[in-house]
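# step 3/5: fold
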Amino acid sequence: MNKRDLIMLDKIYNEEIAVAFKEIGKKISDKRRSMRKKFPGISKKLNISINYLKYIEDGKVTKIPEHIPVKGFIKSYAKLLNVDIEEELNLIETPPDKQLSKVVSKHKIGKKPNMLLIYFILIFCSFLLVIYLVQLHTGSGKSDEDSFIGSNKRIIIHNKKIYS
C-alpha cells in the first residue's frame, strides 16, 4: 500500500465519522421535535450551550472547540431524550488502524523539503564547479612557453634586412 492509498483511506475514515455525527444529530433532532422539547430547557438540564446543542443536531461538531468533550455532550443529550446512538458511537470511537495514522502523519501531502539540505547541495555543487574551472584553466595542456597569455616574456625583434 503506497502513501496515496493510505491518505485516501484516512480521508474516507474521516468522512465516515462526519456522516456518523450527522446521523446522530438527525436522530436526536427528530426525537427532540417529537417530544416537543425546546433548546433552552435542554440546555439548562444538561448545562450545555444552546449553540453546541444546535451544532450536535446539525452534525457540525467540528465547530465546537476542541477542549469541549463533544462525545460526552452527545451521549448526555441522547440519554436525556432516550435515543439509541450505539451503532454510530461505535464507529466514531473505533480508532483507525494505528499504522495508517502513523504513516499518514509522517508523510503529509505537500511536505516541503528541508531547506538546509537544499543549501548544502547548492554549496556542494558550487564547490565542484569551482574545482572543475580551476582544473580546466590550469590543465589546458599549454605551458607558459607555448602561450603568450599570462607570460612575462619579452619578445625581441631584430631588424634584419632580407636581401634578394
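# step 4/5: annotate
The two ends are 94 Å apart (CA to CA).
# step 5/5: archive (pending)
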